[in-house]
Design goal:
mainly alpha; 2 strands; two-stranded antiparallel ribbon; 65% helix
């Protein structure tokens, strides 16, 4: 489920002081900060997928009939659609809050980004499975 990352090594590389984007020795911190905000892209995509799944479920359940009425009127189908809607809403709230914290630049969002990524990927699969 992951992506392949390459290993980059720099040997005997000099970077002029004018070309640095931060103080000497701060490169790892800058890189990790970038990773933290980048981690928010996966749960954001899961929000979009959840909304799409909700759209499909609602449209399909309104036209598919079983026992003389649309399946949307059956309690079990309604429960599944409600789960998809509620989970997508919760995930969107997590992404919005984490993104807002990241935009403020004064927050360390390592934990929030990791939790959003974990919750987003787990719930994204669960939402799709409910379809």
């Amino acid at each position: 489920r992951g992506i392949e990352n390459g290993v980059t090594r720099f040997h005997q590389v000099r970077v002029p002081a004018a070309a640095r984007i931060g103080p000497e020795g701060a490169g790892l911190k800058i890189a990790l900060t970038t990773l933290n905000t980048g981690r928010l892209s996966l749960p954001a995509m899961c929000v979009g997928a959840g909304k799409w799944c909700l759209k499909i479920a609602r449209e399909w359940s309104a036209v598919r009939e079983q026992w003389g009425r649309p399946v949307a009127g059956h309690e079990a189908v309604g429960a599944k659609i409600s789960f998809i809607a509620a989970t997508t809403f919760a995930l969107e709230a997590i992404v919005d809050l984490s993104s807002q914290m990241a935009d403020e630049d004064r927050n360390d969002i390592r934990i929030e980004a990791a939790l959003a990524k974990l919750y987003g990927s787990e719930m994204g699969w669960l939402i799709a499975d409910e379809l």
